[in-house]
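Pinned message: reference record for M48 family metalloprotease
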Amino acid sequence: MMRILLFLATNLAVVLIASITLSLFGFNGFMAANGVDLDLSQLLVFCAVFGFAGSLFSLFISKWMAKMSTGTQIISQPRTRHEQWLLQTVEQLSREAGIKMPEVGIFPAYEANAFATGWNKNDALVAVSQGLLERFSPDEVKAVLAH
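Predicted structure (tokens):
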């Protein structure tokens, strides 16, 4: 519920700031002086609709985009001890947090990095870089995953 409220508040704040900015800079007067009849309230409604739609769209494709942009390989059957340990650790952490087991993946990068994404905490993706698994101790990786 809190996520939805924050989502709505953020989008409404953007519309409010756009409204204040357009009013302060006299955008309506400038447009009228140049023969353009623009109703700012209609423009703000238009912006709000597209802003909300764009936010929802990006939220729903976030998992797919993250997989594609990082080259994340989802672990369906662990092939190495690192993969086995990673799946078991994420399963344990998700169980302790009371959420559904997310998809787990590894992406090819030397840098130590990790991310979690998804439109819903029960339909998520957790991915770590190969560099994180190779260069950090299990306790350090577990701390990153728990975060």
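Pinned by admin. Summary line: The chain has two domains: 2-60, 64-146.
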